[in-house]
Design goal:
It is elongated, with a radius of gyration of 48 Å. The chain is about 0% helix and about 45% strand. It has a 5-stranded antiparallel β-sheet, with no helix packed on it. The protein has a 5-stranded mixed β-sheet with strand order 33-40-39-36-37, with no helix packed on it. The chain has 5 domains: about 350 residues, Methylamine Dehydrogenase, Chain H (7 Propeller); about 90 residues, Immunoglobulins (Immunoglobulin-like, Sandwich), CATH 2.60.40; about 80 residues, no CATH class; about 90 residues, Immunoglobulins (Immunoglobulin-like, Sandwich); about 110 residues. It has about 775 residues and is mainly β.
């Protein structure tokens, strides 16, 4: 959704107002203009871009951007009002105002003239005061135009203000038409005056030839009021139809009224007669017109429906052209200054100039891909501004219609940090300036028609000068200086078979690059096959493959390559486990160590396992230390060795293989049978055992029993036990679960298993089982 900006009348005399509430923006065209009609001397205008929070100064004579400043957060409801060369940015989102100095483009901190006004804040710029109206609560405050500090008391002004209801005249009187009651209110020297019921609700207020005019749409009349007394002077009839939507403006140069009606007509009314004698058709169908703008004997009517501007020759009168400046249904701004007509879309980068013959000169206020590009960062300490004076002459372009102006001549507009720039102000007419005051945009100033300056930070600076002619008149010009960081040159030379690469360098053939001062550049030496880097020179040293240089200034680096004669490092001495070591630990995490080899930067450790007579890889790793750990799999033979690696990657002589093995079996047990009695079961057999060597771990105990087939049956329970180095443990192996009528002596071997394999130790029942059979079971180390 596009932000719908309130529309304003064009071509009025008076001062300026910016209104950001729903439906209010009214302007005059003397020394100040509102948000919808920003105004500045010298054919230049400040234009708002709410999407990026910026104001752009557009030079009308060259149709170029003269300055950009950041004044609000992107997306804030932003407007601008100007008084002479100074602009005021009005943020309707947070209800604040910022002042932009017309000579230095210095942006002031935000001021809140009426706390809590928000988007109900309306601002009027006069020569002596800046007025702020909170339309929501009906409070009017006067502020100092330089400091934005509120002067005196706030004044109650309980009116409902719409888009065409307020204006400032040449004497600084604020005129407001109450849209709800039709009352005409004016404030003079801080005192409000009221004339009740001058129009039906929904009327409009404009200024024509310096006098307030109230347009009563319901009564179809226009009444001129005396600006000194507020008394009605004359009333004329208007040719309006019921339901017409009308955009109204007054002439800044005569007692004329312009009405653009939605049915597609333009009426030109003489306020000294009895009505509107001239009407012109503007297209066909229904239109959404904006307030007409008058300059140079032409009237410019914005058509929001089609995106066109209707250019009317007032001497005919006749339509000269209807160029399309923006897309259909775009509520753009149309304003005039010193014979130049500007159009602006506050919601995009699009703006431009409409010439008197209907030509279009489009301008991008900012780069939509990089909105901050071109912004001039403001100095921390504001510079001393030149004395208030006549209009700016952007980039040396003279004021339209002026005989004598000034421009700035520079030795360069794109210096680097610390580079001296010669600046001179020269006249554009018959007279040459005799004195000048410079502001360099970095907090420094200087006098004289010629000066030299340098900047200490890389950014865009707005440089302005105020020059004085022999007759005492003054003129101003400005120029943008883009200061870049200092540059440094890196030069690389190569001897022998190889190349050197890095950012901006691939030598040969590309053996030099320019970087910002202070930047680091990493160079890499790449020898041809059979060659090696024998050494760096210049800003680099040693034989490492890479070298990083810091560009504090111009730097030279050399690299020399020679035939490669690798040094083979000796075999490392293995420290452990020694050859033939048997390991017993679970898990089988094997730690290996070796002695360091002089000159080695890395070591390759290889371990292998013997699977059914074939050696296979168990581990293969490269480390910088003299030891590592790997996990071996199974009670199988293994071996390991180490190779030292030189800095250039050349492997040395491998060590011999050191063999090892794992045996994680439980070594030996002595078992003892015990007979117990269980109620209802009779005699039961258990076995206790004790390891003959220190062993720890969990045992899974299982058992079976057997007897003569068909004569008896028995079962054994299953459980676990824990061995703890030499302690006697009784396995919870019991059974059978029943009684038998026939018994035979049974001798059985009780076996111990490691990891599920039946191994080593066996013991038998010391006597025949007289009842239950003897056990057959396994103990499994977990």
């Amino acid at each position: 959704m596009r932000l719908r900006w309130d529309r304003v009348r064009g071509g009025l005399t008076g001062l300026a107002v910016v209104v950001l509430a729903a439906g209010v923006v009214v302007a005059g065209a003397h020394d100040g203009y509102p948000t919808e009609r920003p105004h500045l001397l010298s054919g230049s205008a400040w234009l708002a871009s709410s999407g990026v929070g910026e104001l752009t100064l557009l030079d009308g004579s060259s149709a170029e951007v003269a300055a950009q400043v950041r004044v609000a957060d992107p997306g804030d409801r932003l407007g601008v009002v100007q008084q002479s060369a100074t602009a005021y940015a009005v943020d309707g989102t947070d209800g604040t105002v910022r002042r932009i100095d017309g000579a230095t483009f210095q942006v002031s901190p935000p001021a809140t003239p009426v706390p809590g006004a928000g988007d109900g804040l309306h601002v009027f710029a006069g020569a002596e005061a800046l007025y702020a109206l909170d339309a929501g609560r009906g409070i009017l405050a006067a502020t100092d135009p330089a400091t934005l500090v509120v002067r005196g008391r706030t004044v109650p002004l309980a009116v409902q203000v719409n888009a065409t209801d307020a204006a400032l005249d040449d004497a600084g009187r604020l005129w407001v038409l109450d849209a709800a009651t039709g009352d005409l209110i004016w404030i003079e020297h801080g005192t409000p005056h009221t004339r009740r019921g001058v129009a039906h609700p929904g009327g409009q207020l404009v200024l024509a030839d310096g006098a307030p005019v109230v347009v009563d749409l319901a009564a179809r009349t226009a009444t001129v009021f005396d600006p000194g007394s507020g008394s009605p002077r004359t009333t004329i009839g208007l040719d309006l139809r019921p339901g017409d939507t009308v955009a109204v403006s007054g002439s800044a140069h005569g007692a004329r009224l312009y009405l653009a009606a939605s049915r597609g007509t333009l009426a030109i009314c003489d306020l000294t007669s009895t009505g509107c004698a001239t009407a012109l058709p503007l297209g066909t169908g229904t239109h959404d017109f904006g307030p007409p703008v008058e300059t140079g004997g032409r009237l410019f009517v914005p058509d929001y429906t089609t995106g066109q501007v209707w250019v009317v020759d007032l001497t005919g009168p006749r339509v000269l052209a209807s160029p399309r400046v923006l897309g259909p249904r775009t509520p753009f701004q149309l304003l005039t200054r010193d014979g130049v007509v500007f159009f602006n879309d506050p919601d995009s980068e699009h703006a431009g100039v409409v010439t008197l013959d209907g030509g279009i000169r489009p301008v991008a206020k900012y780069d939509p891909a990089d909105p901050g590009k071109g912004l001039g960062d403001q100095p921390t300490t504001p510079p001393t501004p030149p004395t208030p004076q006549t209009p700016h002459t952007p980039s040396g372009t003279p004021t339209p219609g002026a005989t004598d102006g000034v421009r700035i001549v520079t030795s360069t507009t794109t210096p680097v940090i610390g580079q001296d720039v010669v600046l001179k102000v020269v006249g554009t007419g018959a007279l040459a300036p005799v004195a000048a005051q410079w502001s360099f945009g970095d907090g420094h100033t200087a006098p004289g028609t010629s000066t030299t300056h340098h900047w200490d930070a890389a950014q865009t600076y707005q440089v302005s000068v105020q020059a004085r002619f022999p007759d005492g008149r003054t003129a101003t010009a400005w120029v943008r200086i883009q200061v870049a960081g200092k540059q440094a040159r890196l030069t690389v030379t190569v001897s022998g078979a190889g190349t050197v690469t890095g950012t901006g360098v691939n030598c040969p053939p590309s053996c030099g690059t320019t970087t910002a001062a202070g930047q680091s550049v990493t160079l890499t030496a790449v020898p041809t096959a059979g060659f090696a880097l024998t050494g760096w020179g210049g800003a680099c040293a040693g034989t490492a493959r890479t070298c990083t240089v810091t560009m504090t200034g111009d730097v030279t680096v050399s690299a020399t390559f020679g035939p490669y004669n690798p040094v083979v490092l000796p075999a490392p001495v293995l420290l452990g486990p020694a050859d033939g070591t048997v390991l017993f630990d679970l898990p089988r995490d094997t730690a290996v160590r070796w002695q360091a080899v002089a000159g080695a930067t890395r070591y390759r450790m290889q371990a292998e396992i013997n699977q059914n007579g074939t050696w296979g890889t168990a581990a293969d790793t490269t480390v910088g230390a003299t030891g590592t750990t790997f996990r071996f799999g199974g009670d199988k033979p293994g071996r390991w060795r180490v190779t030292a690696i030189a800095p250039d990657g050349t492997p040395g002589t491998p060590s011999g293989w050191a063999r090892f093995s794992y045996d994680t079996r439980i070594q030996a047990f002595a078992g003892t049978w015990v007979t117990t009695t269980s109620p209802g079961l009779g005699s039961l057999r258990q076995v206790t055992f004790q390891p003959t060597s220190p062993t720890s771990g969990n045992l899974q105990v299982t058992g079976t029993c057997e007897g003569d087939p068909g004569l008896f049956a028995c079962t054994w329970s299953t459980g676990t036990a824990t061995l703890s180095g030499g302690n006697l443990v009784t396995a919870p192996l019991i059974g059978p679960s029943g009684h038998y009528t026939q018994h035979k002596p049974v001798y059985r071997t009780y076996q111990i298993s490691v990891s599920g394999q039946m191994l080593v130790q066996a013991f038998t029942s010391p006597q025949p089982v007289s009842g239950p059979v003897s056990p057959l079971g396994t103990l499994v180390k977990g």
